[in-house]
Amino acid sequence: MTVILPGATIGLLGGGQLGRMTGYAARSLGYDVHVLDPDPTCPARAIASRVITGSFRDAAAAADLARGVGVVTLEIEQIGPDALAAVSQFAPLRPPADAIITVQDRIRQRTWLDRGGFPLGPWRAIDSAASATEAVGALGRSVMKTPVGGYDGRGQARVGSAGEAAGAWESLGRGPLLVEQFLDLELELSVLVARCEDGRMATYAPAVNHHVAGVLDWSIWPAELPPDVSHQAMRVAEGIAERMGIVGLLAVEMFLVTDGRLLVNELAPRPHNSYHHSERGASTSQFEQFVRAVCGLPLGSVDALRPAAIANLLGDLWEGTDPDFANALTIPDVRLHLYGKAAARPGRKMGHLSAVGESTEVALGKVLAARSRMVKQG
User: Fold this and answer.
1) I want to staple 186 with a disulfide (CB 3.0 to 4.6 A). Which of 122, 256, 287, 292 is the partner?
2) 142 with 181: CB under 8 angstroms?
3) Which of 281, 330, 336 is nearest to 313 (CA)?
4) pLDDT tens-digit series, residues 243-254
C-alpha cells in the first residue's frame, strides 16, 4: 500500500463545494491541493494552490493534474473514462477507475448491485417508448431516471400508469432510462463508509434524510433507528465498499420501506451532503476521513460526540436580496457554511446550516429555525 504523507499534494477531480471542504481538511493535515474543474472560479479555488481549467473528459488536463501530485481523488463521479485512464498513468487514483465507472451510470450501477445480491427495489432498463410502456405496466407506479447525471431531482419523472410512460420517455430525452417501482417509504437514510487500500474500514452510523422535490432539505445524525435496521444498513454498505474496492469514501443512500425492507437507492464514491453534520457531531469529519483514507493514513474515530443536524441553503433564499445571515446566527450552536458560489439560482446548493443539541430533534429544530430567520421581512 502506498501511503501519501502530509507535505505531499492531493489532486482533486472537481472543484465544487465538496472539493472545497475536502481541501480545507487536507490543508489542516498539511497537504497542498491542486484542482481540475471546468469553472475557473469554482468554489475549491479558495483552497487550491493550482486550478487547472478543463473538462472532466479532457485526458490531457487530467494528466496535467496527475503529474504534479502524490494521489488523485474526486468530488464528482462524472469523469470521462479517458481522463480516468490518463490520471492512472501518472498517480494513484483513489477510488479506482472501475469503481467510478460502475457508479457513474445508474443502469450499470443497478446491474452490478443485482449481481452482487444487494437489496434493491424492482427496476427495469428501457430504451424505447414501447419498452417504457411495458416496464411501467409490469412495475406499476414508477420513477423514470436518466442513467447519467440528473442529481437533485433533475432528469427524473414520476409515472402513474403505463399510459403515461411513452410521454415521460420522450420528455427525458428518448434515450436509455432506468425505471424504478415507486415505493412506499418509511424514511430515507444513508450510510458512509471509509475504506483504505489495505481493506481497513470505518463506518459511520446511519443518517436520516428528508428531501423536497428530489433535493436534500435536511439530515440528522446519528439516526434513531431500531438497532437491527442500523446494523443491517451498515453491513450492506460495508459489503458494497469491499466488493467494489473503494479507496476513500462510499455513501450508500437507502430506503426503509413501510413493509420493513431496507433497499439500496444510490451510491456515491465521495463525500456526501447527508454527512456534512459530521463536522459538528462526529469525532472525525467526513472530509478529514476522506483525506486519511485516500492517503493511506490511520482512519479516525467515527464516534458520535453530540447529536447533529444540517439544513441546506438553496439559491431560492437569495431571490430579491441576500439572506439575513446575522439573524440566523442569533440561534445558539448554529453555524453557517457558505460554498463560495458567485451566482445564486433556484435549486442551487449555496451552503448549509449546522447545529448540535441534546438530541437530533433539538439540533434539527435549531437549523430549521435559523433558516426561517434568513428570509428578510418587508
Assistant:
1) 256
2) yes
3) 336
4) 999 999 999 999
